[in-house]
């Protein structure tokens, strides 16, 4: 330390590592520090020993669970939309060369007490019990409209300005029933509550298009992909990008203290008695708690199992969405399951997560509807944590704080935050319109 | 899922900052040397095709990209390595003394299934400096350490002058191949997400 940097990044969460990579490629001199001795921060993947240490204190994991190193348990479980923003960032930065991905087997939705596959093709759609026959015809017309919709081509708008027409009004035009609306809004557009109904329909239409495009990308059973060895690979991959372009990495730096001048502008970071100077600081909320405010809480269960989730056709990787209305809650609940086929557990083991925006202080009780779908579990852990967003003015103090990760099982909001921060930090906008079709979609 | 026959072998190079890890890679793969020392910038992994007994393999040689300077390599860097190269500077006793730390760090992070027999190769670099007059680690001392750690193969090189570099990497490739063949890695069907500038040859040989 005791050097001068353009930017000091604190915390090696996925957002911070993407930013570190982007800024280093831009030629900025970056120092990246983390208080932990591993990468990932709140978005890391833990091995079994680390998991036990975090949730069970001094206990040791039982030997029958297998080797600790075979586990890569995500602390922020999400799947990657195959056509989504994160894939675009990965391709834009060429970070894909450090990673391996595999398609996710299936996407399911909880409806009237049962788990149903979200149809991945026309055949599945026809057979699906989620809609009656006549409803399917009406829904098909709606899907065709969405598929054909092009924001810059008014002929495709059919006389409706989607920046003004609400989602509810749009759907009413096609005469769809509440059950179908629930399915479309939560299982396809991936909204986590029902506020979207009263908002302009453009966002929902875009989300539905993203879902369809992601589904078509690798023609798997779901629109998602997921990295081998778990999500902890992603921050490490972006950190390597930063290092290759000159970023300096210091893990295991306790108490990184941000220093300010008399005007309240950041001047550096002190750790272990040494101060590194900088013009800007980028960090996750935990490094500048005085400049963030609490905006919610996430409740999560983490389960180790020896079987796939029942009713998912033996899927080794799967998402199940439990829409809020089905549960009588304010926001959706998400089940996320991956397994040894993605190298996140030893042979025969599955890792399942149940996540939602917390509405009580008792995650074990609150998450019960999701946990009940898991079947027998070998071990289960519960977590509840606060979500924060920044309240500082970066133009005044030159501190750029990321927002905490939400409970959703995809990365779109995560990448949006990163891109916004990048623009605030550099004044530039990244062009992510990579030609996805130039990226081979062939399965090996 | 069926295991795949390996055609890609991963080699990682460990050692203190400044011992010449990047220069060794560049000399071996690109026959280049740069006198300008800057803590490694722009080094990533390099690939080289090697042939053994009418079979072609891709050696993927991973540099630390400077992350070793403050002990900040992640577990992903170590995963799946088929051979680990430990590099020290013959003019720096500290870099030789740290070989033990690097070897132990590797065994912890990579957790190879057969740690007693995992293939290491040790390289003592910079034998060219000052005509050998500033040397502080004797060859005898280095060979004794290698012998004590399970007869690790040992080479003395000059990345600058290209001395012994080819020989060292031939040994590295041979050991990586032997290690890679013995382990039937479970590698599920993966999808190709992006245009990698350096394609990974993980497919079957068919």
UniProtKB/TrEMBL annotation, chain A:
Domain of life: Eukaryota
Biological source species: Glycine soja
GO biological process: protein transport; small GTPase-mediated signal transduction; vesicle-mediated transport
InterPro entries listed in its UniProt record: FAD/NAD-bd_sf (IPR036188), GDP_dissociation_inhibitor (IPR018203), RabGDI (IPR000806)
Single GO MF annotation: Rab GDP-dissociation inhibitor activity
Zinc is among the record's keywords: no
Pfam families on file: GDI
Coiled-coil ranges per UniProt: none
Family, per entry: Belongs to the Rab GDI family.
Protein known as: Guanosine nucleotide diphosphate dissociation inhibitor
Keywords: GTPase activation
GO CC annotation, single: apoplast
Gene3D superfamilies noted in UniProt: FAD/NAD(P)-binding domain, Guanine Nucleotide Dissociation Inhibitor, domain 1, Guanine Nucleotide Dissociation Inhibitor, domain 2
Protein role: Regulates the GDP/GTP exchange reaction of most RAB proteins by inhibiting the dissociation of GDP from them, and the subsequent binding of GTP.
Automatic annotation (TrEMBL), chain B:
CDD domains xref list: Rab7 (cd01862)
Source species: Glycine soja
GO biological process, one term: protein transport
MF annotations from Gene Ontology: GTP binding; GTPase activity
PROSITE patterns tied to this protein: RAB, RAS, RHO
Primary location class: membrane
GO cellular component, one term: plasma membrane
SMART domains per record: RAB, RAN, RAS, RHO
Protein name listed in UniProt: Ras-related protein Rab7
Membrane topology: Lipid-anchor
Assigned keywords, A-Z: Cell membrane, GTP-binding, Lipoprotein, Membrane, Methylation, Nucleotide-binding, Prenylation, Protein transport, Transport
Functional description taken from the UniProt entry: Protein transport. Probably involved in vesicular traffic.
Subcellular location: Cell membrane
NCBIfam families (UniProt xref): small_GTP
């Amino acid at each position: 330390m005791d050097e001068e940097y353009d930017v000091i990044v604190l915390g090696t969460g996925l957002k911070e590592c993407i930013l570190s990579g982007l800024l280093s490629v831009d030629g900025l001199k970056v120092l990246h520090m983390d208080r932990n001795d591993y990468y990932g921060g709140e978005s890391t993947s833990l091995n079994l020993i680390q998991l036990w240490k975090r949730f069970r204190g001094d206990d040791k994991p039982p030997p029958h669970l297998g080797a600790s190193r075979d586990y890569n348990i995500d602390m922020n479980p999400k799947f990657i939309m195959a056509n989504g923003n994160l894939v675009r960032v990965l391709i834009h930065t060429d970070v894909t060369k450090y990673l391996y991905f595999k398609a996710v087997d299936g996407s399911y939705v909880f409806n009237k007490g049962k788990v149903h596959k979200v149809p991945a093709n026309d055949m599945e759609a026809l057979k699906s019990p989620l809609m009656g026959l006549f409803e399917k015809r009406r829904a098909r017309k709606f899907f065709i409209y969405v598929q054909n919709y092009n924001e810059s081509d008014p002929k495709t708008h059919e006389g409706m300005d989607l920046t003004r027409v609400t989602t509810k009004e749009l759907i009413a035009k096609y005469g769809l029933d509440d059950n179908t609306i629930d399915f479309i809004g939560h299982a396809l557009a991936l909204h986590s509550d029902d506020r979207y109904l009263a908002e302009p329909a453009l966002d929902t239409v875009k989300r539905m298009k993203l879902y369809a495009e992601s589904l078509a990308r690798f023609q798997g059973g779901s629109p998602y992909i997921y990295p081998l060895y778990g999500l902890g690979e992603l921050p490490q991959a972006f950190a390597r990008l930063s290092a290759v372009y000159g970023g300096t990495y210091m893990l295991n730096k306790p108490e990184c203290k941000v220093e300010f001048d008399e005007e309240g502008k950041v001047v550096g970071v002190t750790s272990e008695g040494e101060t590194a100077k900088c013009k800007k600081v980028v960090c996750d909320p935990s490094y500048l708690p005085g400049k963030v405010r609490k905006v919610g809480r996430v409740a999560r269960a983490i389960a180790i199992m020896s079987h796939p989730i029942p009713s998912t056709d033996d899927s080794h990787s799967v998402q199940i969405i439990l829409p809020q209305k089905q549960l009588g809650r304010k926001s959706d609940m998400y089940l996320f399951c991956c397994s040894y086929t993605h190298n996140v557990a030893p042979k025969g083991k599955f890792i399942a997560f149940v996540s939602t925006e917390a509405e009580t202080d008792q995650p074990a009780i609150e998450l019960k509807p999701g946990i009940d779908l898991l079947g027998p579990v070998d071990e289960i852990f519960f977590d509840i944590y606060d979500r924060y967003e920044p309240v500082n003015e970066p133009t005044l103090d030159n501190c750029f704080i990321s927002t905490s990760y939400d409970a959703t099982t995809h990365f779109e909001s995560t990448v949006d935050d990163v891109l916004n921060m990048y623009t605030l930090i550099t004044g530039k906008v990244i062009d992510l319109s990579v030609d996805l079709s130039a990226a081979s979609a062939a399965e090996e | 899922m069926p295991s795949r026959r390996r055609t890609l072998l991963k080699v990682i190079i460990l050692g203190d900052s400044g011992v010449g890890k990047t220069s060794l890679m560049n000399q071996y793969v690109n026959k280049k040397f740069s006198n300008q020392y800057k803590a490694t910038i722009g080094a990533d992994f390099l690939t080289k095709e090697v042939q053994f007994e009418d079979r072609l393999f891709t050696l993927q040689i991973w540099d630390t990209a400077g992350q070793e300077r403050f002990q900040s390599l992640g577990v992903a860097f170590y995963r799946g390595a088929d051979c680990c190269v430990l590099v020290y500077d013959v003019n720096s006793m500290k870099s030789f003394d740290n070989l033990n730390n690097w070897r132990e760090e590797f065994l912890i992070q990579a957790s190879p299934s057969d740690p007693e027999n995992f293939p290491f190769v040790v390289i003592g670099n910079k034998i060219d400096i000052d005509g050998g007059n500033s040397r502080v680690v004797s060859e005898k001392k280095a060979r004794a350490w290698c012998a004590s750690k399970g007869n690790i193969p040992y080479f003395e090189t000059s990345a600058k002058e290209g001395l012994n570099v080819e020989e060292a990497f031939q040994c590295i490739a041979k050991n990586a191949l032997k290690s890679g063949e013995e382990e039937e890695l479970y590698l599920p069907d993966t999808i190709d997400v992006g245009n990698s500038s350096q394609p990974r040859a993980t497919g079957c040989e068919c």
